[in-house]
Amino acid sequence: MPELNPDVLATPGSGIRDIMNRAFAMPDAIRLEVGEPSFPTPEHIRRAALEALEAGRTRYTPTAGLPALREAARDKVRRINGVERPVEGVMMTPGAGGGLYLALRTLTRPGEGVLLPDPGWANYASAVAALGLRAIPYPLRPPAFVPDPGELARRADAATRVLLVNFPSNPTGAVPEADWVEAVAKLAAERDLWIVSDEVYDQLVFEGAATSPARFAPDRTVAVYSFSKTYAMTGWRLGYVAASPAVTPWLVRLAEQVWQSVAEPTQWAGLAALTGDQAAVDAMRDAYRRRRDLALATAREAGLTTYRPRGAFYLMVDVSASGLDDRAFALDLLENERVAVVPGTAFGAEGRGLVRLSLAASEAEIAEGIRRIARRVRSRAAELRGA
Ligand SMILES: Cc1ncc(COP(=O)(O)O)c(C=O)c1O
Hints:
This protein is of the alpha/beta class. It has 13 helices and 13 strands.
């Protein structure tokens, strides 16, 4: 057999799947590892897709997406993200993951460096590996999980082409202040870097608002958005990219080779999502905020160290007192307490000693899960002292 591409063979799989697959085999487990909304897609969005199907809107669309949907996405980027883009800068993608991949492919050549958050969404490192790029992790350290711009500058070498940022962050929930975003945009200009900004949690912010780097560096920022989190539409596969009109048409050119166009009924559902009643978006965000507050209070009472997330729907919990590394702790916890969480190192080396909990579970499950985590940390710590 001829050889396979070694870059693809070097692409790591997801550390989340590992825990998930084990949890599937335990029907009584409390599932706090899953990173997807616990809500159904709002009814008016589902109805729009059904109507599209009934009306026979089941065909190829322009690769960049239905014109009305691109316009609605442009309007949303203006309204929510405060960035003015011509419609030629906006394209629809089958989820944010597709947009990220096209962006990295278009902005880089093999061998070039990409600055990646650590801990960060694991797919960044996988995409970088698959494309033959060089990952340059930059640390997000507790309690704020926002990197120092000076440290970013030190890590960027002459062959670094892209700074990837993700705020609100998965897995930390961090949301930096606007002056930090401005400083990073300035740094990108000084070092002639592209900024790939993953903003899929832009509407899941509990205090204040997230600031897009495109506000300060519109020409060099490629921002990636999704319907998955905001509208509880993970399975519909719909996202979009907003960038300079000098960049987006090249992403569209690549998309022609890969998916040609996003499923048409999904795009009509997306149009209903962006132009319809936004009450469900507010209600889901408020529910995540309540769960976050409950989780923080429960963890405090139980004596666990946590870091207050300002956005997204995750919580990082320090389990280092257990004496186990985070992966061993997650496996031990699942086995003995029937609670599934993701080890911090599934998101990069800087995640050591931490586990990620998802707030996409019921309040009762979150509170009980945290109590069991605390119990397990205590009993392992006691064993450690006794040893
Ligand atoms: C930070 C981050 N970016 C992108 C995605 C992918 O989103 P989509 O479903 O739109 O591909 C996720 C999904 O978990 C995510 O957490």
